[in-house]
Amino acid sequence: MVGITENDKYSLVEFAYNFHKLVLFAVGLGMGTCWMGGTFDRNSFEKEITINYGEFIPCITPIGYPKEKQRLFDKAVRVVVKADNKKSWDKLFFNTEFKTHLKNENAGQLEGPIEMVRLGPSASNKQPWRLVLSEDRKTCHFYIEHIPNYSSKLGYEMQLLDMGIAMCQFDTAYTELNISGNWIMDIPELALPNEQMEYIVSWRVC
Predict the structure, then answer these.
(1) What is the per-residue DSSP string for 158-178?
(2) 161 φ, ψ (degrees, to nearest 5)
(3) For residues 9 and 162, what is the distance between their CA atoms, to the nearest angstrom?
(4) Distance from C-alpha of 195 to C-alpha of 167, rounded to nearest angstrom
(5) What is the pLDDT of residues 161-199, one digit of tens each?
(6) What is the pairing mode between strands 93-95 and 129-133?
(7) Taking residues 75-79, what's their average pLDDT?
(8) CATH number for the domain formed by residue range(s) 5-205
(9) Phi first, then psi: what are they for 200, rounded to 5°?
(10) Count helices and strands in the chain by DSSP H and E runs
(11) Across all residues in the chain, what is the average pLDDT?
């Protein structure tokens, strides 16, 4: 499965959101997938599909039914990239401001969706998402903490794909829990902990 988008911030975020929806659908059918952003030959794919000016292929995924040997290889890869070693809540999520860590028992009805963000896949398992939950527990602000020069050789910021994945994880979870809400642009006036932190989007309970 191959995707095409423009190389700007919100195009990459939206692309990853939709691409992850397809990945989850394939996994739901019992298929194997693997996000590939920097380990494939873009030129070979670009020869097979039509790409307009300003567009590119940020990532692909193979889809299929893995053999048993492949399953063992996949497990080994997950160990190498620490795919199952997720950061704890106090490293990722915050209560009204970046100075106060959010505990899962204080997240209210959004505990499940926020936990699904924590468990989501990301490039090299860096988990660049940072979430700040409002005092009334109805608005969740999504930030990215950039790792400088992380994917500079690729010509695009791969970690923006991680933010789209995080939004999809959150979105899928609250839909499953029948929580009504929508995505909005509502930049809060928060003191940022460092220069690498950047606001992306917010989600608000209806």
Answers:
(1) THHHHHHHHHHHHHHHHHHTT
(2) -65, -40
(3) 12
(4) 22
(5) 999 999 999 999 999 999 999 999 999 999 999 999 999
(6) parallel
(7) 46
(8) 3.40.109.30
(9) -115, -60
(10) 6, 9
(11) 91
| Closest listed residue to residue 66, CA positions, set 23, 34, 24 | 34
Do 156 and 58 meet the contact criterion of CB atoms below 8 Å apart? yes
All structural domains of the chain with their residue ranges: 5-205
**Token reading at 154:** 């690729």
How many residues are present in the chain?
206
pTM over 0.85: yes
Q: Do 87 and 127 form a contact (C-beta atoms < 8 A)?
A: yes
Instruction: Look at the block and give the residue holding tokens 């097979």.
Output: 48
Residue type, 133: L
Terminal-to-terminal C-alpha distance of the chain: 34
Sole residue written with tokens 């199952």:
84
User: Which residue's structure tokens are 């590119």?
Assistant: 56
* Alpha-carbon torsion, ordered 34, 35, 39, 41, to 10 deg: 100
21: closest CA among 203, 172, 137, 124? 172
